[in-house]
Task: inverse folding
């Protein structure tokens, strides 16, 4: 059962229910108004009878006699009443007065042609003749005219209701088709999406709920396309990066196996193979870290961390690398830099930045590692006097496998800065780069200061 059929069925049921309710309400109101008009007409006539102006107060009457105002008593005839009146046996109506009960014979007061449903008004007045007596007057009015109007109204409904239902149903079906047309277009667009065809978009024609849904779907398609394009590029770059060490390993193994070699030649081949396998292992490890970080599955062990202590330990470890290249590493820590972070991941972030600075700084150069606070952020800056980076490369610097000079990549994988950026973002921070060719670069990591530490 399609959604269009279900909506049409629900609309028809709703339409029938509304029609029945409106018809019942209008019939009830018409009937009430017609009989109220008869009632009001008789009541107004009684007010003009002079003999009743000084009437005494009557006692409320029971059962089907209703008191409308002293001394007027209204009474509606039923079929049982008519049968008794027309049979000649008479029909006694009890009327209670201050002096006692009166049994009034309607046969003596009503005309012989009185019909069922007629409204009867009995007027009871004290009379001095005879003493302590009463005079009774009966006024009637037939409701047949009102009943005729109701019958005619009912007959007209048998014509009006089907026409109304047919017209409303046709219009409802038309507007329902128009309302569901954007949904059908969305279905066709989504069905046409393929892995290699993610450029299709839904046309946004309004600002209603369907229009907002179209915008949301288009944003999803755009995000899907971006992710798929990134994955395609990632796969191509990863394949390219892995192909080179695999080719070298195959060539080295082929050369070593082509003929009998000396032990020293075998050691050289195995050393080269080992070096390339290590490069592949490092690449796979970084790819795994990056994949987990992008999917939000990389676990973080967040603790209150003193960046001054972490950077002091890091500086002690990398002094071996900088001294071996004749580079002077200087530190300037102006604060403790208390953050809520993962020590292992943050250490990897700063180690990557310092390692890059050592790689691309020529001998006798300088590297400055500093820590300070700015705008409720803890800032760690790594500045070098190396070769620098041209301005056109800066926007793509954190892209996976992107390297400024692939001919001189210093053994890198092109993933280090990407991982650094993800680590900073996982901690609610970011990385800013400033660089000039021939003058060096500055990588500044911004991390939020721990709020509890700020409050203390």
Result:
């Amino acid at each position: 059962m399609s959604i269009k059929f279900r909506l049409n069925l629900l609309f028809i049921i709703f339409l029938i229910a509304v029609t029945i309710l409106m018809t019942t309400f209008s019939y009830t109101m018409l009937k009430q108004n017609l009989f109220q008009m008869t009632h009001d007409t008789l009541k107004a006539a009684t007010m003009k009878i002079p003999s009743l102006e000084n009437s005494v107060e009557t006692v409320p009457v029971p059962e089907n006699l209703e008191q409308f105002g002293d001394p007027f008593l209204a009474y509606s005839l039923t079929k049982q009443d008519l049968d008794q009146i027309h049979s000649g046996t008479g029909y006694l109506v009890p009327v209670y007065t201050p002096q006692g009960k009166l049994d009034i014979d309607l046969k003596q007061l009503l005309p012989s042609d009185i019909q069922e449903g007629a409204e009867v008004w009995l007027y009871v007045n004290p009379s001095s003749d005879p003493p302590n007596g009463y005079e009774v007057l009966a006024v009637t009015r037939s409701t047949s005219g009102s009943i005729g109007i109701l019958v005619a109204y009912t007959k007209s409904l048998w014509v009006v209701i089907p026409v109304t239902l047919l017209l409303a149903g046709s219009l409802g079906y038309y507007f329902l088709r128009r309302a569901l047309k954007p949904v059908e277009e969305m279905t066709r667009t989504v069905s046409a999406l393929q892995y290699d065809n993610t450029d299709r978009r839904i046309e946004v024609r309004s600002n209603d709920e369907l229009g907002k849904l179209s915008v949301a779907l288009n944003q999803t398609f755009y995000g899907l396309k971006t992710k798929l394009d990134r994955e395609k590029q990632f796969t191509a770059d990863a394949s390219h990066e892995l192909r080179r060490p695999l080719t070298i390993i195959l060539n080295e193994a082929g050369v070593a196996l082509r003929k009998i070699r000396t032990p020293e030649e075998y050691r050289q081949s195995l050393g080269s193979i080992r070096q390339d396998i290590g490069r592949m292992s490092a690449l796979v490890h970084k790819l795994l870290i990056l994949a987990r970080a992008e999917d939000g599955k990389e676990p973080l062990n967040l603790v209150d961390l003193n960046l001054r202590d972490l950077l002091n330990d890091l500086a002690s470890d990398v002094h071996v690398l900088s001294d071996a290249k004749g580079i002077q590493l200087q530190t300037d820590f102006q604060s403790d830099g208390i953050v809520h972070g993962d020590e292992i991941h943050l250490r990897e972030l700063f180690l990557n930045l310092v390692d890059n600075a050592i790689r691309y700084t020529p001998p006798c150069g300088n590297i400055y590692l500093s820590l300070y606070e700015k705008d409720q952020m803890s800032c760690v800056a790594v500045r070098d006097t190396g070769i620098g980076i041209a301005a056109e490369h800066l926007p793509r610097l954190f892209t996976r496998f992107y390297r400024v000079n692939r001919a001189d990549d210093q053994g890198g994988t092109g993933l280090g800065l990407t991982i650094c950026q993800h680590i900073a973002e996982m901690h609610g921070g970011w990385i800013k780069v400033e660089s000039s060719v021939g003058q060096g670069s500055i990588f500044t990591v911004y991390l939020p200061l721990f709020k509890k530490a700020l409050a203390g």
User: Anything to note?
Assistant: The chain has four domains: 1-48+146-192, 51-142, 209-294, 302-455. The radius of gyration is 50 Å. The chain is about 50% helix and 20% strand. Residues 249 and 274 are 9 Å apart (CA to CA).
